[in-house]
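hi! just following up on the protien thing from before. the input was this:
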Amino acid sequence: MKIYPIPTGNFKLDGGAMFGVVPKSLWQRTNPPDVNNMCSWALRCMLIEEGDRLMLIDNGMGNKQSDKFFGYYYLHGDDSLEGSLRKRGFHPDDITDVFLTHLHFDHCGGGIQWNNDRTKYLPTFKNAIYWSNKKHWQWATKPNAREKASFLKENILPMQEFGQLKFVEDGDFDWFEIFYTYGHTESMMIPIIHYQGKKIAFMADLLPSAGHIPLPYVMGYDTRPLLTLEDRIKFYERAIQEELYLFMEHDAVNEVITLKQTEKGARLDQALRFDDLFKK
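and the predicted 3d structure came back as:
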């Protein structure tokens, strides 16, 4: 097995929305905002090469939305999904599996694209199975008013229309396990990959950044924040006990972190670059 970080660019979101009830005087210490109170966030995906399978975990925001849409999110940086795949020696047609932690637009938007004359949508990965789960799919395709703006039908429905959608069931993958969470959105999946004697958890939105480690630092976007607290307590206990390496999808600075137990609860232990984990 080989694992590669796949950066697809950066975007900005309001710092207050990203930290919920936590006051700016606290969160700005770790995530300094710009003059508009916006903080920069990564769109960092993961590519797993295992035998004859090539799995991409999440796929960023994509580029098919309108200029007005992207104007809300201040896309920046030189990275792109296809460019990062190319740097690793791969093409979108090589992808066999696209594992989607959940279906918010910044996690699945890159999986569907326009055709050449922008008249219809096509799968970006024409040879891949797109993996979701039944509970989350039902939640996303019949969205509540709070999340409706995050679940864009053009990102979601074509997976099914092109016959490439499949729901995860026990036993589908023997090289990683799934930790399900329910606070950010219904049945978000956190894959935990066994790799070179280590366990690497792809954090999605359970832990957006190292600055979110204290339990009350819950995003305003989470639909059920008290469940996020429960999800994190369970996950933190496991992460510390099993010495998990946390692969950060949205942290613009830290690719991988680890946690330690302190008298104040779980706190940052190490901040690492992914490639440095496996240098001999």
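The helical segments are 15-19, 24-27, 67-71, 81-87, 105-108, 134-141, 153-161, 225-241.
The mean pLDDT is 96.
cheers
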